[in-house]
Design goal:
This protein has about 800 residues and is α+β, with helices and mostly antiparallel strands. The chain is built from 26 helices and 26 strands.
């Protein structure tokens, strides 16, 4: 078993309580241990993170953002873990890849997995609730007093009350099991539960509509109004029409026919549209429908109906649709518009009518209008093809019983491997000629340069893997049809897919994604800035303006057209509804290799520029799975640490006149989270600086840490090992510091990125909402010195690397 001692070291003990191993945790801020779900693994709580740590290899296998963790609960098969925080639950897999998160407004009390490994049951102050790995939640029952769950088995919940008494409560998880079956497309089980369980409620119906399963709800909903709305939602015109008849009889109004007519018109089902207009007595739209479909026979009937109704305007419009000039003249004459009637009759060559109307005008003392010569006959086009309905995609209908035999869809999870980094030469570290005089009497190595250059090996600075997934209608009944589009007809579960109205690509991008890169690619810079402000408190957008432009240019392509025609604008997409990526994780890792090369070679200005560019690219990187999202976060942390290290290195040059400040900065340099090979150089430099300024306690500490590094035992570093040993011996003999240093190696600390001073554990601090740089509280509200993008001390959601559509 493992414990965390008072020095925050991990102590491994056997069953006799004897210490067998001590392990330094990966973070100095670790304050609690949890079960890691497997032998040799631990979960470490470090501020707002939960780290999966392997004690044998001393590697961090994964981490997840989880503020104020209270407890963790592993599923019986060890495949998933539920992290119970103060105000929420996070569910992750065994590698700390987040599956979902749930927030609560009241404090969490406890939780446990049921025996099926798929439902996490948790309690709050007054409720027992459930959470599924896909993020669905619900209430199982209410509580009179808080309880603490110990085990969940089938329909029994074992718990303790506040008096410490064991209790067993009966719970009903049918709703959760139903949602799981629907999620896994086990439609046979879904239908069985619909028959035998009382699930038909507004919440379940709303859930089915939200998840895109209105066809499922349609099979067990009996209430006519709800059934009608569901039929429209899934495009089932036949069921909607049947329900409309029932609603018309029960409610005594025909409002539903208007909605049915609108949906049928979208699908091109003229038969249902005609019936709907007839039921609502919408004669104007009915006449226009007959005009569009070329049904002249029914247009003639509409002309007679309008005459019987005394509808002068409707009669005239129908006459125009039919091209019946004589009827139009009669309408104008009967309505008292003798002048218009005379002009119409004369222009169309109806001499008998024109002469009669002329006499009537003169008899009434009116003026006969002048008819201009050269009038042309205007007739509506003669319909050549008279079709009833638009062409539809023929699909096969399924019942839920048939769909129950469908297999579950397999999903392929892509794995992304990190790449190594390039080798480069070291130079310009500024410590090549440090002369450390040991004062030895013999002529051995006493006058030699203890901190000289060592040759590059194959390991170098850059070999570390960053480790940074159709039925026609018969009789009078029309058949359901769909718009002539590219809709496939059936979805993965065998249900009808309702046709959707087409939208521009850029509009889809904005609607489908919550990532700033996708919004900027669509040209919606304002919403992109709003997203970054809400997610990472970004306010200074000048430094990221070029990234917005590159995202837009990369996702908008102009292709030359034919001679004399304009160019064509294309919008390449990485998947349906999302733009192509202008910035990728792989390109950022390539830049990281170059930055490592600059750092190794001592070209700190070039390294700083490259790391800052990587830092500003991170908010614009879109990834497809949580593994890559974790790598993006590691990339962000790496860039932050190296930028801080380079700033400290620059400050060392400015503090050359102050030996104490010089030694302090060199010490802080060694506490930046650098690659092992880079840390070796930092320790070598700090050891030389401290020894030269006679701060022997600090020099001994650096020499000791240097000798503990595995890299120092390599053949190429043999000379360095000898010199570090001598520094350690000499420093232990002197055992004094010449200057008072603001540095205590025994206390974990973070570096104030503004003052470049330590902030020890327990002291107040604030962090940048984006890069996580640490500052003292008086710096709150200012722009971060490291990224120059976000404000310090603003509580936000955090960096989003995956679009919601993904």
């Amino acid at each position: 078993f493992a414990i965390l001692d008072k020095n925050r070291s991990i102590v491994i003990k056997n069953l006799q309580n004897e210490t067998t191993k001590k392990v330094v945790p990966p973070s100095a801020a670790v304050d609690m241990l949890f079960n890691g779900g497997a032998a040799g693994r631990l979960l470490l709580r470090s501020e707002d993170k939960l780290i999966l740590f392997e004690t044998q290899s001393r590697r961090v296998l994964g981490e997840i953002t989880a503020p104020k963790v209270k407890m963790v609960s592993w599923s019986p098969d060890g495949s998933k873990v539920a992290v119970v925080c103060k105000y929420g639950v996070l569910i992750a897999d065994r590698n700390m890849e987040q599956l979902c998160s749930v927030s609560e407004t009241v404090r969490m009390k406890s939780g446990a997995w049921d025996s099926s490994n798929k439902i996490f049951v948790y309690t709050t102050l007054n409720h027992i609730k459930y959470c599924l790995p896909n993020g669905d939640t619900g209430i199982i029952r209410t509580l009179d007093a808080p309880i603490y769950v110990t085990k969940v088995h089938k329909k029994q919940l074992y718990c303790l009350d506040r008096e410490g008494k064991a209790r067993v409560l009966s719970i009903d998880t049918t709703e959760a099991v139903f949602k799981l079956a629907l999620e896994n497309k086990k439609y046979g089980q879904v239908m069985e539960m619909v028959r035998k369980s009382r699930l038909c409620g507004k919440a379940i119906i709303g859930y089915l509509q939200k998840k895109g399963f209105p066809e499922v709800a349609l099979h067990f909903v009996k209430e006519p109004r709800t059934r009608f709305n569901l039929a429209l939602a899934c495009g089932n015109i036949e069921v909607a029409m049947e329900t409309a008849f029932v609603l018309e009889q029960e409610e005594g109004n025909s409002d539903c026919w208007h909605d049915l007519g609108s949906e049928a018109l979208k699908q091109g089902n003229h038969q249902v549209v005609e019936m709907a207009y007839q039921r609502t007595k919408d004669f104007d739209r009915l006449s226009f429908l007959y005009l569009l479909s070329g049904n002249t026979e029914k247009l003639k009937k509409m002309l007679k109906i309008s005459e019987m109704r005394g509808d002068v305007m409707g009669r005239y419009q129908n006459a125009m649709f039919l091209g019946d000039v004589e009827e139009r003249v009669k309408v104008l004459e009967s309505s008292g518009n003798l002048g218009l009637a005379y002009v119409s009759a004369t222009a169309h060559g109806l001499e008998d009518h024109a002469e009669r109307i002329k006499e009537a005008i003169e008899a009434s003392g009116g003026e006969v209008p002048e008819v201009k010569p050269g009038a042309s006959l205007l007739q509506p086009p003669t319909p050549i093809v008279r079709s009833d309905n638009w062409p539809t995609v023929e699909v096969e209908k399924h019942t839920l019983e048939d769909l129950g035999d469908l297999g579950d869809a397999d999903e392929d999870h892509a794995e992304t491997n990190g790449n190594g980094v390039a080798h480069a030469q070291e130079e310009n570290w500024g410590d090549d000629d440090d002369d450390l005089d040991f004062g030895e009497a013999d002529g051995g190595d006493g006058g030699d340069d203890i901190i000289d250059d060592f040759e590059d090996g194959d390991g170098g600075w850059g070999d570390d893997d960053l480790d940074l997934g159709d039925d026609e209608g018969t009789g009078g009944g029309p058949s359901p049809s769909k718009r002539d589009s590219d809709v496939a007809g059936l979805d993965a579960g065998g249900f009808f897919t309702a046709p959707q109205a087409g939208t521009p690509a850029t509009t889809r991008w904005v609607a489908n994604s919550s990532h700033a890169a996708d919004h900027s690619a669509a040209g919606s810079v304002e919403t992109a800035m709003q997203l970054l402000n809400r997610q990472i408190a970004a306010t200074n957008f000048d430094c990221i303006k070029d990234k917005f432009l590159m995202s837009y240019v990369g996702a908008n392509v102009s292709i030359p057209g034919l001679p004399g025609t304009p160019s064509m604008k294309m919008n390449p997409e990485r998947s349906a509804g999302l733009p192509i990526k202008a910035f990728t994780l792989q390109s950022a890792l390539t830049s990281l290799k170059q930055a490592y090369a600059y750092f190794r070679g001592g070209k700190f200005a070039d390294a700083a520029n490259t790391f800052k560019d990587i830092l500003l690219v991170v908010p614009m990187i879109v990834v497809d799975n949580r593994v890559e999202a974790s790598q993006v976060k590691e990339l962000l942390e790496t860039a932050r640490e190296y930028i801080t290290a380079i700033r400290i290195k620059g400050a060392m040059g400015e503090a050359a006149a102050s030996p104490s400040r010089m030694t302090e900065l060199s010490a802080y340099f060694t506490h930046c989270n650098l690659q092992p090979a880079h840390l070796l150089l930092a320790l070598r430099s700090a050891m030389g600086t401290a020894f030269k300024h006679k701060n022997f306690i600090a020099a001994a500490s650096f020499a000791r840490r240097l000798l503990e590094l595995p890299e120092v035992s390599s053949e190429k570093n043999a000379d360095l090992k000898v010199k570090a040993t001598k520094v350690l011996q000499k420093s232990e003999q002197q055992a004094r510091n010449e200057h008072d240093l603001d540095y205590d190696e025994s206390k974990p600390f973070m570096i104030d990125c503004n003052k470049l001073t330590p902030i020890y554990i327990g002291q107040d601090k604030v962090k940048c909402s984006f890069c996580g740089s640490t500052y003292s509280p008086d710096f709150k509200g200012n722009h971060c010195v490291t990224c120059n993008l976000s404000k310090v001390g603003v509580e936000t959601l955090g960096l989003v690397s995956m679009s919601s559509y993904s």
